[in-house]
């Protein structure tokens, strides 16, 4: 979607970040992250930042890991999600339980 506005301008119009201090919002704009590689993230201008929280602990193996992307893509094609209620379970859940 191209409105002619930057991501930062669109973020300010359409999104309110969690824990935002409203009086300080104008003086402290959000950092808009465009991509990640390994332990680094990059903003829209290409500046590099060391990401110390692993994307809030969701990317502990780093960003843009090709091996993980390939197996995740395959799993999403096969069965992206399935519950384990009412006597049902996915085969990949059984495999993970066995490994753990």
Quickly list its features.
3 strands; elongated; alpha+beta; 100 residues; single chain
Largest beta sheet: strand ordering: 1-2-3
Count, helices: 4
List the secondary-structure elements in sequence, H or E. Answer: HEEEHHH
Task: Count the E strands.
Answer: 3
Total number of domains: 3
**Biggest beta sheet attributes:** 3 strands, antiparallel
**Helix content bin:** 25-40%
Radius of gyration: 19 Å
Beta percentage is: 5-15%
For the residues shown, what is the average pLDDT? 91
Low-confidence parts lasting 5 or more residues at pLDDT below 50?
none
Note the gap between the termini: 43 Å
Which structural category do the helix and sheet elements fall into?
A: alpha+beta
User: How would you sum up the global shape?
Assistant: elongated
Kindly summarize this structure in a few lines.
With 100 residues, the chain is of the alpha+beta class. Helices cover 34% and strands 12% of the residues. A hairpin with a 2-residue loop joins strand 1 and strand 2.
Q: How would you characterize this protein structure?
A:
The protein has 100 residues and is of the alpha+beta class. It has 3 domains: 1-30, no CATH class; 33-63, no CATH class; 65-100, no CATH class. 34% of the residues lie in helices and 12% in strands. The protein contains 4 helices and 3 strands, in the order H-E-E-E-H-H-H. The protein has helices at residues 7-14, 54-57, 66-78, 91-99, and strands at 33-37, 40-43, 48-50. A 3-stranded antiparallel sheet has the order 1-2-3, with no helix packed on it. Strand 1 and strand 2 (40-43) form a beta hairpin. The longest helix is centred in the last third of the chain and has 13 residues, at 66-78. It is elongated and about 50 Å long. It starts with 6 loop residues before the first helix and ends with a helix. The model has no long low-confidence stretch (mean pLDDT 91).
């Amino acid at each position: 979607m191209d409105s002619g506005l930057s991501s930062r301008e669109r973020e300010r119009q359409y999104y309110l970040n969690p824990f935002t201090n409203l009086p300080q919002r104008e003086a402290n704009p959000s950092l808009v992250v465009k991509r990640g590689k390994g332990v680094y993230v990059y903003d829209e201008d290409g500046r590099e930042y060391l990401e110390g929280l692993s994307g809030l602990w969701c990317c502990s193996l780093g960003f843009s890991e090709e091996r993980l992307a390939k197996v995740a893509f395959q799993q999403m094609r096969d069965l992206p999600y399935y519950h384990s209620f009412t006597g049902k379970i996915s085969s990949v859940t059984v495999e993970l339980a066995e490994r753990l």
